[in-house]
């Protein structure tokens, strides 16, 4: 008798989870494999094309050099630039057009266009009044690019405020 009662109780609980307010729960067997009827999709604040636009810092005035370094699963793009004063910080290579945050893709012509950017020092700071010494105040940034991303890229162009450096893949 207890086996019959226990199995009926389990059956009733499973059946009750299929309808009503519990239909969206994980106990609903109709939703276990992607079914579940007409559930509304959550609203996302990310644009449909997946791009994320951020406030870009100012460009470095001059790029001195750029080179490729080998990696196990791609290449490391290394760029060095000079700023007019000391105190530039948060340097990075930023895509010229908005892109998904987790991958890089070139323009339709196969060229990946990047900007060498950094935050300048506060105008009233001591560092903003000191001129940069090119021998010790160069700014170097790097960007890892995977083999999958490199397959679509034919050339990389890195721009600054005054010049553009181009590297072939």
UniProtKB/TrEMBL annotation:
Keywords in alphabetical order: Signal
Signal peptide: 1-22
UniProt name for this protein: Uncharacterized protein
Keyword Signal applies: yes
């Amino acid at each position: 008798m207890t086996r019959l009662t226990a199995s009926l109780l389990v059956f009733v609980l499973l059946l009750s989870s299929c309808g009503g307010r519990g239909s969206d729960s994980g106990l609903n067997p109709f939703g276990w494999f992607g079914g579940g009827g007409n559930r509304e999709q959550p609203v996302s604040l990310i644009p449909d094309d997946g791009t994320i636009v951020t406030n870009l810092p100012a460009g470095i005035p001059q790029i001195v050099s750029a080179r490729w370094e080998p990696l196990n699963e791609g290449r490391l793009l290394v760029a060095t630039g000079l700023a007019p004063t000391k105190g530039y910080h948060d340097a990075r290579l930023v895509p010229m057009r908005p892109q998904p945050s987790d991958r890089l893709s070139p323009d339709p012509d196969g060229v990946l266009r990047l900007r060498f950017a950094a935050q300048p020092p506060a105008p009233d700071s001591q560092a903003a009044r000191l001129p940069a010494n090119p021998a010790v105040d160069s700014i170097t940034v790097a960007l890892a690019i995977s083999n999958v991303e490199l397959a679509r890229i034919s050339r990389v162009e890195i721009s600054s405020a005054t010049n553009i450096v181009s590297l072939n893949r």
